């Protein structure tokens, strides 16, 4: 009896290579949003649903680190950030209201961070600090996050994508901070208080959250005039919480969380998957919302520069990474290099090539491998 034909090592490798590519292409086809993620380097997390934006925790595990009250420019605080990932995330600084401490806003920490943000809830230098001072402290905290936070935090932070939030006078401070620093990507003032009502110079997308029964900073005196005082050309929205008080932002609130997550995703991450929650539904049909106004549809997204994938002219540079492929990077598989969108796992301890990439079908890119 004749034996089976002998298969050479090269033939076996080619057969294995074909099997691997077929398997990975199949998994890519089953992964919704992979192509979109490759075109938007800031997109994070799975396709959102109403349930996912209302959940107490998002898809990322999180941890915290404390910042001393002796820090310069603000009163210290707590940083919440995603773990178990090599991705980077936009930052969000959150200021408390008049006489309050960071603990009044702490419920937002893990809730936002687990959706894919580096969140910094801060204390102010003084409990009685006015909105202008709180604006300065929000920006000082943003600078601290970018320049002086721990290496673990900075490894997760994309400091080119920062946002501010605040409650009451902290909310007034978030509007003033966005007036002072137009490079911010988003601002969310929660039941805001500020004596100034006209903010014609603001260029930062702003979600104003008011409370129908606010007796401290009534919507007619603060939230609505502040919203109206922003440019009509600005990407902005006004959400009013039905039957809520001034202190609604001081405890877990599903409506605040869902709309804050959607706003931050849309404008910090440039993620248009969240437009459906901001522009799509009949908001006032929701019994938790008494008023909703917006300038939808929002400005088209500029996906930004995903980064130089390597050295000029397609020259390869060998580097080492673990368990992660960033958009614009490729992995060498037996003489031909392939890459998928950010976050796809091609195996532990693989070597990757930084090269000029050429798009082919299925969201893959094909390049020549390093010699």
TrEMBL record:
**Protein's UniProt keywords contain Signal:** yes
Polar residues composition-biased segments:
37-53
Gene Ontology molecular function: carboxylic ester hydrolase activity
Please list where the region (Disordered) is annotated: 36-55, 298-318
Which part of the chain is the PET hydrolase/cutinase-like domain? Answer: 37-297
SUPFAM superfamilies assigned to the protein according to its UniProt record, in alphabetical order: alpha/beta-Hydrolases
Gene3D superfamilies recorded for this chain? alpha/beta hydrolase
- Keywords, sorted A to Z: Hydrolase, Signal
Query: Does the keyword field hold Chaperone?
Result: no
InterPro entries from the entry? AB_hydrolase_fold (IPR029058), FrsA_esterase (IPR050261), PET_hydrolase/cutinase-like (IPR041127)
Where does the UniProt annotation place the signal sequence?
Answer: 1-36
Q: Which family does it belong to?
A: Belongs to the AB hydrolase superfamily.
Protein name per the record: Alpha/beta hydrolase
Q: What organism is recorded for this protein?
A: Actinomarinicola tropica
């Amino acid at each position: 009896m004749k034996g089976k034909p002998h298969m050479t090592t090269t033939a076996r490798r080619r057969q294995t290579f074909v099997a691997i590519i077929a398997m990975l292409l199949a998994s890519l086809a089953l992964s919704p949003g992979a192509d979109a993620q490759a075109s938007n380097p800031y997109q994070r997390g799975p396709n959102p649903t109403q349930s996912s934006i209302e959940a107490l925790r998002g898809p990322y595990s999180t941890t915290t680190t404390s910042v001393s009250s002796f820090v310069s420019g603000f009163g210290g605080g707590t940083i919440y950030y995603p773990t178990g990932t090599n991705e980077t995330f936009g930052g969000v600084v959150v200021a408390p209201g008049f006489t309050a401490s960071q603990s009044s806003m702490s419920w937002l920490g893990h809730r936002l961070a687990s959706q894919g943000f580096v969140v910094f809830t801060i204390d102010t230098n003084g409990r009685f600090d006015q909105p202008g001072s709180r604006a300065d402290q929000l920006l000082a905290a943003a600078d601290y996050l970018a320049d002086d936070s721990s290496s673990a935090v900075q490894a997760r932070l994309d400091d080119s994508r920062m946002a501010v939030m605040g409650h009451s006078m902290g909310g007034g401070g978030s509007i003033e901070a966005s007036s002072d620093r137009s490079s911010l990507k988003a601002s969310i003032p929660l039941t805001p208080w500020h004596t100034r009502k006209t903010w014609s110079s603001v260029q930062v997308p702003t979600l104003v959250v008011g409370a129908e029964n606010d007796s401290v900073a009534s919507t007619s005196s603060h939230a609505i005039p502040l919203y109206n005082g922003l440019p009509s050309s600005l990407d902005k929205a006004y959400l009013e919480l039905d039957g809520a008080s001034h202190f609604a932002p001081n405890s877990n609130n599903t409506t605040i969380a869902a709309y804050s997550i959607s706003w931050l995703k849309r404008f910090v991450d440039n993620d248009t998957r969240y437009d459906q929650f901001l522009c799509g539904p009949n908001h006032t049909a929701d019994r938790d919302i008494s008023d909703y106004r917006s300038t939808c549809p929002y400005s088209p997204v500029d996906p930004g520069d995903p980064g130089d994938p390597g050295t000029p002219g397609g020259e390869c540079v060998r580097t080492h990474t673990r368990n992660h492929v960033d958009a614009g990077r490729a992995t060498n598989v037996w003489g031909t290099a392939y890459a998928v969108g950010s976050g796809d796992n091609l195996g532990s301890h693989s070597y990757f090539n930084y090269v000029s990439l050429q798009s082919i079908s299925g969201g893959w890119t094909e390049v020549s491998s390093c010699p």
